[in-house]
Amino acid sequence: MPPTLQAEYVIGDLCLRYLAPADRLEAWGLAVFPATMTGRAITPREWLDAPAVRDLPAAWNQIQAWEVDPLVHVHVRGEAYPGGYAQGRTLRNSATTQSLSVRNHTRETLPDGRVLLRTTLAASSGLVCAHELIADAKTGTIEIQTSAENPTNAPITLEFLSAFSLGGLTPFSTDDAPGRLRVHRFRSAWSAEGRHEERSVEELNLERSWTGHGVRSERFGQSGSLPVNGWFPFVGLEDRPAGVMWAAQLACPGTWHLEIYRRADQLGLAGGGADRLDGEWKKTLLPGERFAAPPGTLTSVVGSVDDACDRLLAAHKKRAKARPEGEHDLPVVFNEWCASWGNPTHDRMVQLAGQLAGLGLTYLVIDDGWAERPGDRFQQNGDWNVNRRAFPEGLRATSDAIRSRGLVPGLWYEFEAINPGSAAWHETAHQLHRDGAPLQVGNRRFWDFRDPWVHDFLAERVIARLRDDGFGYLKVDCNDSIGPGVDGPESPGENLRQHLDGVRRFFKRLRAELPDLVIENCSSGGHRLEPSLLALTAMSSFSDAHETPDIPLIAANLNRLVWSAQKQIWAVLRRGDSPERLCYSLAATFLGRMCLSGDVAALTPESREKVREAVAFYRDVAPIIRDGTFRTRRVGGEALQHPSGWQIVTITDPSCERILVVWHRFSGEAETMTLSLPNQTRWSLQRRFDAAEGPTLHPNGQLIWTSALPGSGGVFLLAATGP
Rounded to an integer, what distance in angstroms lies between the CA atom of residue 10 and that of residue 135? Predict the structure, then answer.
């Protein structure tokens, strides 16, 4: 018999179905798909009927083709692990999971109109799991959080708890859907964030085994304190013939994993935090204790990976509440890092503030080098005492001077780490340890944010300095990963999770004590671009790519993953920059938040005027960048460091009456670029910023322009003038 429908909800344009096998109605699973596709969902086949199966002995050849993927996957220490060659690859479908039975299911409409579906399940060990799903019709997303509670009188040790699990993929094929499913992921590395990868299920060796005995699992993630180190916590599955995408994203500041799983005809998408396989994690729940997995946000849409990402971004925008009021208009930043390269001084900063006057900037950030270096070596941070040789009157004098010139002063910290040469280096009792010794990664040790002493120390050295010295902007850096686990009272992975929870508490304290402070989260550029940390700060650095030719490519790659209002992009300006190079650098910042650096004082009057023009243009179109829909078209090779061809990004405002076109030309022969505009509307070119031959708007709705020189770029603003 096919799966039995236990409950169904249509919320917005999503259909949510809770299913169970006919012979075990208390074992629920979850299927989600667009409500408009309900009529195209197909009943799965009951039995495998391939010749190899039919030829098996009669006792073996009745093999069920489908299974219901459990709503929650969990494993308790001491119970049987999953078979089918799963050991070392997955902890899904263990004996604990198989014993879960639904005890209660409720529906509630929340005050903001969202719908909460809460399902309670109990395992044979006595463990109780809660599956809470909140559906938001406005964003077309669902958020799932799973928790486990121990109501017994004895400890229960978890080795795995899923954050979410979505099964029944694809519901639009009655068999194992050969050749129609594609997996979407985003790779990431230092200064190479957000590379999209699309692979077929078959390429990933996820075809079902011929009897369903051997499981198939593609599991990926990262172990440590930099959540976007290797991959973004995102997975998508596309049924191309049906035109449907499913996508899921985890909000987790530390170790996480995502998994594409198959044992029967249909696939499952799942994810969670650290577990016994990855991250050295287990968690003992004492009687009455509860543990929650990181939340996951999911969607399903008729459309492409871009459409699915738009929905996940819309959900994130609703959660991003750490942005002071002045951030609404996307004010422009100048960071002096690529001007002084770690040697800021009072005189330089005051002079720089004067040189920036009239350019339309808001923030001037003092980067690394302001703090005392006891041994006169680069990065001896940890004490956070002012370098009095560079700032003889202290930072308040510099901050006041910057404000008197019309700019908001900002300050850089890497307050989670400690470098050799500082007195803090020897405060080992308050640092993270591994195997009994202070944990050192390169030239860094790390404060233990489970320790109240650390919070008090940093409140004095960070929060008090920002407040007392008059800073309105904070850049927070974090330049290496702690790794999978640290010492403490629980498992190494759980100790790390609690430490990172302490880091998040300190960010919240910063916000509470300095509510007008604008916080930029930089983690060697883009290593912390995940939802839970993005929600705590006003913006994040997109990458540590400062002057490289791949900046427009990385910035465009991140359009699908980071809200443009929070994605800070470097444009480093140099004395010898040609007009084309200036336009190339400045145009890239229109893909997010504009952050300037470099040799402003050395620019020619013509170059300075070009910068002023770009900033004025940016400020005028900031609402389009903040609220618009991004789409990228790219022609050329795959290399980031040696780009060829060209790239066009369109940003369409919510009314569809204005389109911002951001283009870049890379190496190769002169290119004629063509952009087809919505042909039901007449368009006019309102404004441009470039150094190319003027674009031509044809009556057929095509915008055509030529860039003869490699390494050039620009921005066009188009407006609808009528039907």
Answer: 10
* pLDDT tens sequence across 29-56: 999 999 999 999 999 999 999 899 999 9
Do 357 and 463 have their domain in common? yes
CATH number for position 371: 3.20.20.70
Secondary structure of 105-118 in HEC code, one letter for each residue? EEEEECCCCCEEEE
Average pLDDT over residues 604-623: 97
What is the Cα–Cα distance from 718 to 351, expressed in whole angstroms? Answer: 38
DSSP state of 480: S
Closest CA to 579 of 605, 616, 597: 605
Q: Is residue 4 part of a domain?
A: no
DSSP designation for 141: E
- CA 8 to chain centroid, in Å, comes to 31
> CA-CA distance, 700 to 681, in Å (whole number)?
10
Q: In whole angstroms, what is the distance from residue 333 CA to residue 520 CA?
A: 11
CA 245 – CA 302 distance, rounded (Å): 6
Is the domain of 659 the same as that of 604? no
pLDDT 10s digits, 120-153: 999 999 999 999 999 999 999 999 999 999 999 9
Percentage of the chain lying above the pLDDT 70 cut:
100
Q: Which pLDDT tens digit goes with each residue over 494-503?
A: 999 999 999 9
Look up the pTM and report it: 0.97
**Complete edge-to-edge strand list for the sheet that includes strand 29-34:** 4-11, 14-20, 29-34
- Domain residues for the domain of 398 are 328-626
Tell me the C-alpha distance between 632 and 618, whole Å. Answer: 19
Give me the CATH number covering residue 120: 2.70.98.60
**Last-in-domain residue among 319, 354, 382:** 319
Q: Is residue 557 assigned to a domain?
A: yes
- CB distance 695 to 685 below 8 Å: yes
Tell me how crowded residue 478 is: count the other CB atoms within 10 A of its CB.
23
Domain boundary, last residue among 570, 595, 626:
626
The CATH code of the domain that includes 708 is 2.60.40.1170
**Residue 435 forms part of a structural domain:** yes
How far is 210 from 207, CA to CA, in rounded Å? 9
Q: Which residues pair with 367 in a beta bridge?
A: none
* β 593-598/244-250 pair status: unpaired
User: Which amino acid would we find at residue 704?
Assistant: I
Q: State in Å, rounded, how far the first CA of the chain is from the last one.
A: 54
- Residue 688 parent element (H or E): strand 682-689
Residues 307, 309: Cα–Cα separation, whole Å: 5
166 within 8 A of 14, measured Cβ to Cβ: no
Phi, psi of 187 (to 5 degrees): -80, 160
Concatenate the DSSP letters of all residues of 602-668 into one string. Answer: G--HHHHHHHHHHHHHHHHHHHHHHHPEEEEEEES-S-SSS-BSEEEEEEE-TTSSEEEEEEEE-BS
Beta-ladder partners of 673: 705
Closest CA to 657 of 695, 684, 618, 630: 684
Residue 442: count of CB within 10 angstroms of its CB: 9
Distance (Å) of CA 668 to CA 226, 437, 635, 706: 36, 54, 11, 13
Residue 698 is predicted with a pLDDT of: 86
204 with 63, same domain: the answer is: yes
Distance separating alpha carbons of residues 195 and 634, to the nearest angstrom:
13
Distance (Å, rounded) from C-alpha 684 to C-alpha 722? 10
